Amino acid sequence: MASKTLCYIFSTMLFLLQLHVSAGQTVVKSAYWFSGSGFPASSIDSSLFTHLFCAFADLNPTTYQVTISSSNSALFSTFTRTVQQKNPSVKTLLSIGGGNANASTIASMASQASSRKSFIDSSIINLARSKNFHGLALDWDYYGGFNYHFQAISKSLDWINVMAYKFYGPSWSPKEAGPPAALYSITASQISVDTGIKAWIQAVSPKKVLGGHLPPLPPPPPPAAALPLLGVPFFGFAWHLVNANNHGLFAPANGAAITSDGTIAYNKIKDFIAQTSATTVFNSTIVTNYCYSGTTWIGYDDTQSISTKVTYAKGKGLLGFFAWQLAQDPNSVLSKIGI
Ligand SMILES: *[C@@H]1O[C@H](CO)[C@@H](O)[C@H](O)[C@H]1NC(C)=O
Ligand SMILES: *[C@@H]1O[C@H](CO)[C@@H](O)[C@H](O)[C@H]1NC(C)=O
């Protein structure tokens, strides 16, 4: 299962904010804006969010300083001012790294105090403060399989983004059209949102003290644990089915459809359904949407899946949720859920 557990990205937050959550509410409603998407920051309905991530800043492999590419420089400098026009209280975070960043460079930066200082000084002082961001997010994909230093991460950071999606995709699961981000699984060997969230909660919980024959020791004070934000995808994956008549979950497939790696934005999925009169299914047992037409099969999150996950996040006492990414839901159909 090693390759599947790699699908959890823990994007680590480095900024300082006091946020309190109690059962039945979430306090962070956030989404990524990705500059490469072409979706203008001025089009974001920031009134729907408490926090927005501006992605991505880069890490220089030699100096370990955080930099912003020249093409992003002006966009990032004005990001906070732009999104605060519709919501003056929205908080912004500069996101460093991302899926295309070199994870070895981040690991080598993190391994030594001197390079960590370059990273911290350049990111906090030179970039975040001078460009009006309220905080920083380190998007380190994927730093350690499932051998995360849960307790250390939890103590150092304000929250943790759990990338609870990309469980199945045509690039690494070409022969099986699986649900990319199901809340629950059908069999114990399948990965799901719930298994990942439970693993995180268990890993950061204070260890129980066993008393034996002695009087039990008083419990240790709970660590200031970073609470997880549940990641939800504003995209799905399209597979090419082997047989158009075999179109259930985990149907035999042979690779990606529609795009080279099968990634397809939520609004494009809705276009596909309208144009092909695709059959749509919501499976409430595992909480996933999928649709199919001919030999094309798409697994994704529609409104039912996202709203069930929002309810789940509240029930588990999570801090909130984050979405990747805004350009894929330009009409805010998914963004409006749970707000
Ligand atoms: C990633 O970074 C490491 C260490 O900085 C370097 O050796 C490697 O060549 C880089 N890989 C890519 C694809 O740039
Ligand atoms: C969801 O899919 C699984 C696997 O195909 C199936 O066993 C289950 O009955 C489905 N649930 C619903 C509500 O259709």
From TrEMBL:
Residues 1-24 form the signal peptide. Keywords: Signal. It comes from the Eukaryota. SUPFAM superfamilies: (Trans)glycosidases (SSF51445), Chitinase insertion domain (SSF54556). One of its GO terms (molecular function) is chitin binding. The keyword Signal applies. GO terms for biological process: carbohydrate metabolic process; chitin catabolic process. GO terms for cellular component: extracellular region. It comes from Quercus rubra (Northern red oak). Residues 27-339 form the GH18 domain. This is GH18 domain-containing protein.
